[in-house]
Fold:
Amino acid sequence: MSNSIYVLLWFFVLYSLIGWLLSTAMAAIREKKFVDVGFLYGPYCPAYGTVAVLYAIFLPELENNLFFLFLGGTVLSFVVALGTGFVLERIFHRKWWDYSRKRFQFGGYVSLPYIVVWGLMAVLCILFVNPLLSSIIYLIPKSIGNIILLLIGIIILIDFIGTISGILSLRSHVKKASLIYEVSENLQKATEAMGAGVTGWVLKHLKKAYPNLDEESLLKAKLEKERQREQEKLNAEVFAAGCSFYKLVCLFFLGAFLGDLTETIFCFVTSGRLMSRSSVVYGPFSIVWGLGCVLLTAILYHYRNRSDRYIFVFGTVLGGAYEYICSVFTELVFGTVFWDYSKIPFNLGGRINLLYCFFWGIAAVVWLKILYPLFSGWIEKIPKKTGILLTWVMIIFMIFNIIMSGLAMGRYSVRKTTGQPADNALEYFLDNHFPNERMERIYPNAIIVDTK
Structure:
């Protein structure tokens, strides 16, 4: 957390280059020929740079505990690999890597042996490589370093735009193939009475007009077209079918409300105090629980029928890692610690503890086995137009709520640390509507920390 933005940007660039070199070399040895494994045209893999930056942000305070440092590296790598693979496949309708034929894989996006290697790399990066790179970075005059970073950033941005444009062009080609297939299919049906000669001439003409469309391309286009038809038919009949965007938004609000309610009851039972557990200034919503339900559903949706033990283990590990990341993030952004487990046994930096990690595991089982099927059925019964309208109203409300909460917390932190009086209309509004008493009632466990 002590690394500056300047150093983190250099880490991103250097690790993107190093990652590309190592992965390309390994692929060349395996295939016995040069293989460019990068997503972009240039010699860099932003995924490696992104993981390295996450390591540098979230893992330094674990450097004195090798086991948790290794575990943190594996979990972060798991989340990045899973998220990147999932998003790329949804955008471009193809897998950029596929481990589905390997043992100990998850969704085809993640392979356990590789994740273990990433965990070991996290240990090496935090303990040895990052200090070495930092010393080299500080040898470069900062004015020159900023210019270099700007130039590299522009190159990567142009490369990214060019790559996306090329991929979209390829998708347009596939859509054209799908259209050609549909036309040829309809013509074939219409000319069956005229004999195979006419049909053959039509298909031959289409192939001459589009020589890149071979039989395999047409078959893929057919399958893609059929898949799209089935999906469109499903979406037309049911609101928020499957693990869709609208389903996840609805689950976020349900999870946020139920999480706040559960924590409130738990605190009352254990401490005898009835206190707010909300993350926002308007309404009883816990953002941590809401996002946790969304991530848990999205990650384990295809594994929801697995055993309770399987889901419990995943929920325990992912929930603990998620809560740890949220703790670091809120401290970095708001300068505030919203929970502190340092007085509870088996805690890690006061950010997570073993008991609550087990609670995440139990919650995962209850959510996927009991609550998700129930809520999913309720959500899908909502009329489609009503559901879409309601969903966007909730999204706009929560965006406004989060923005106001962030502004109110930022102003509260300034009042508590410096006592600086309001000097503009926004600060006057925040002081009047969110005074210290109200903020301490909404966030009773918030601790302002010195981030200097």
Notes: Residues 278 and 286 are 5 Å apart (CA to CA). The first strand starts at residue 105 and ends at 106.
